[in-house]
Specification:
With 353 residues, the chain is an alpha/beta fold. 30% of the residues lie in helices and 24% in strands.
Length: 353
């Protein structure tokens, strides 16, 4: 591509939208041209994201009508939606309709939950409200990039951050037939995973120096994880998931445990994981236990594993805002646009967050 592809970000002032803008600022072939905000149109993006001022000194939030006009006149554009679930679908549908009517090409990666399910009924069973654009569902595929070499649809729904970490750890176990299909998952997430608006569960005085579970065995992302695992492996596994709130801002640590079908040493388990992800530039399997600080703010995921002969535990760490959301979305968009998968995403973690 000789000129950058215009990129549009939905999600206003949210953390994921800010992370998308940070990644796009360093991308060799994407240029942020519009950021949707219904509440702050005409105000500077840098006022909401002061850390991005050097990259976006003059860019202003804009309204939906202006974005619709943009997709009508741009021959090709990239749409990233970090709008809330229940809101994203209708906006995405409107912009895709505008592009189709104008004969322009628009690819979308949705980071909300609106297109993660294969049917309207499946979505509504989890989120308890009508889907905003049910006829668009068939145009989206939900998968972790490492588990699907190419999207069969023109648009992609990125799995949630907990789902991404869990799938990276568990899909090889199922795909290689190493374990039973009953899996036990413990996940710990940083406070940014709950969004920018402070609530009791994420407010610093409540969360600092504390640790607690929530939604044990009933978390809404379990059906999403199950569906993605089935797409990747053909197996409908049983996930028993207990999420926890950690006292840090960025990152996720997941441990997946399962019974082995046959005895396997730790060395053999690690070799199986390394082989499975051999061609995946953003997944690294190491002999030592993975640490959140080694991946925080990056698009890399680190895995480790141990066995005791009859059981296996696979540990997975990633950054919830990057690999688990914005970075994974850019990774998918790179593919949809025919660019190198790693474009704009290879910066290492700082290590001392």
């Amino acid at each position: 591509m000789s000129t950058p592809t215009p990129a549009i970000v939905l999600g206003g002032t949210g953390y994921v939208a800010g992370e998308l803008l940070r990644l796009i600022a360093g991308h060799p072939q994407l240029e942020a041209v519009a950021v949707l905000s219904d509440s702050r149109p005409g105000t500077l993006v840098a006022d909401a994201f002061p850390h991005l001022r050097s990259a976006y000194a003059d860019l202003e939030f804009t309204g939906l009508e202006e974005i619709e006009a943009l997709v009508r006149r741009a021959p090709l554009s990239a749409l990233f939606s970090a709008a809330p679930h229940g809101v994203s679908a209708a906006i995405v549908d409107r912009l895709l309709t505008a592009a189709a009517a104008a004969g322009t090409r628009l690819h979308c990666v949705d980071i909300s939950a609106d297109f993660r399910y294969a049917s309207q009924a499946a979505y509504e069973a989890v989120y308890k409200h009508p889907h905003g654009a049910p006829t668009r569902i068939r145009e989206f595929t939900c998968a972790v990039p490492e588990h699907l070499s190419k999207s069969p649809t023109p648009h992609v729904a990125h799995p949630g951050c907990f789902a991404t970490a869990t799938l990276l750890a568990s899909v090889p176990l199922l795909a290689l037939g190493l374990t039973d299909t009953r899996l036990f998952v413990t996940g710990i997430t940083g406070s940014t995973g709950s969004g920018r608006k402070p609530v009791e569960g994420t407010h610093h005085p409540h969360r600092h120096s504390d640790f607690y579970s929530y939604g044990a065995l009933s978390h809404r992302h379990v059906p999403e994880i199950t569906a993605c695992a089935k797409l990747a492996t053909g197996i409908e596994a049983e996930y028993n998931f207990v999420p926890h709130s950690g006292p840090f801002a960025r990152g996720i640590h997941v441990t997946v445990q399962a019974s082995l079908k046959k005895s396997l040493s730790t060395a053999q388990a690690l070799e199986a994981l390394k082989s499975y992800y051999r061609d995946c530039p953003f997944v690294r399997v190491g002999d030592a236990a993975p640490r959140v600080k080694d991946v925080a703010t990056s698009n890399y995921a680190n895995l480790g594993a141990v066995t005791n002969g009859s059981s296996i535990a696979v540990m997975s760490v990633l950054d919830n805002l990057n690999k688990g959301a914005a970075g994974g979305a850019v990774q998918w968009m790179n593919r949809l646009l025919g660019m190198p998968e790693t474009a704009g995403l290879t910066a290492p973690a700082p290590g001392w967050t």
